[in-house]
Structures are given as C-alpha cells and as structure tokens.
Amino acid sequence: MNAQQWIDLYIILITLISNYLLIRTYLYSRVNVYLILIAGLNVYSLYYLFDITGLIETELLGTWTDFLAIVLCICALLVMIRNSKPIFARFPIYLTGLPLLSILFFPLVMRSLVINDLISAIFQGGAIASACILFSLDHFKNQYRAYFIGGMGMLIISYILYWFKLNTWITGGFWVPEIISSTAFMILSLAFYQRNIKKHQE
User: Which pTM value belongs to this model?
Assistant: First the structure.
C-alpha cells in the first residue's frame, strides 16, 4: 500500500473506535445528539473507505462527505446548545435542522473551488469556535475536561494547518491535518463516553 492508503486505513480504524465509544455513550445516555455525531463521523469516513478500495472516483465524493459531515456536526452542536438551556428557554427542535438546508444549495457552488473552499472554511471555523465556547462553559469543571481541551486543541491546530497551508511546509504533509483531526474526534468521543459512564455510575 502507498502512504495515502495507510492514512486511509488509520482514519478508518480511528472511526471504528470512535463509533464504538459514541454508540456506548448513546446506549448509556439515550441522547439523540450522539446519533447525529455517529452519522457525521461515518459520512466523513466514507471518502477514506472508497479511496482505500479504489472502487469509485473519490474527488467528488470527498467534496460531498466533507460538507455533509460538517453540516451534521453543526446540527449536533445546535442540539447541544438547545439541551444546555433551561426547558423554558429552549428554541424549537426543528431549528437545529436548519443547517441541512444548505445541502440544497451546495451543488450550485461546489464546482467553484474558491467559493467551495470559502464555505467549507467558514462552516468548519464556525463549528470549532462554537464547540470551544460550548465545551468551555459546559465542561470547565468536568473532571474529564483534559480530553475536551486536548480534542478541541487538536481540531484548531488541524484547521490552521490546512487552511493556512502550513502543512505544505512538511514533506508529504498533506496528510497531517487529516491524522490530527481524526485523532481529535476519537479523543472527543472518549470524553463523551467517560463523562456519561461517570454519570451512569452515580
């Protein structure tokens, strides 16, 4: 196998571990947000699954899977924000699905590289910023906050490396943001799992 296929295999294995942790977390908590995260994680990994097998052309698939994964993550964040509020202050649940409407308009811009990259950068940056604020408020005193801090820190590093092209300074560094971000997902999945296991034991 070449280097890219080894990266594909690594990300697929990390996805399987993250799936296991999130499924266990959902079974303990029965909170639907974890199902959305599982869906986003698996959509994200589809590109790497098809890339390693070479069954279909993956460039267009990668564009779609990246976009769908980040949209699902934004939906999950909206659900978390809604759940963090008192019942009387919560916005209607259907509003958490509004990011899905962007799927209807994405085909209009996906073939323009500049606009596509701009939308992806804004969506990803907004999701990371929102997650940082949410986790800092919700998990600051949590005993597993180190997992959340580590996971979010790695996502920020991955974002900076990719969009500011710093990974091009490293020979073959195109894969560095992919490894960092997928590892960050696993760490965050472990954080959710540990937190809910603790709640269940209490």
Answer: 0.89
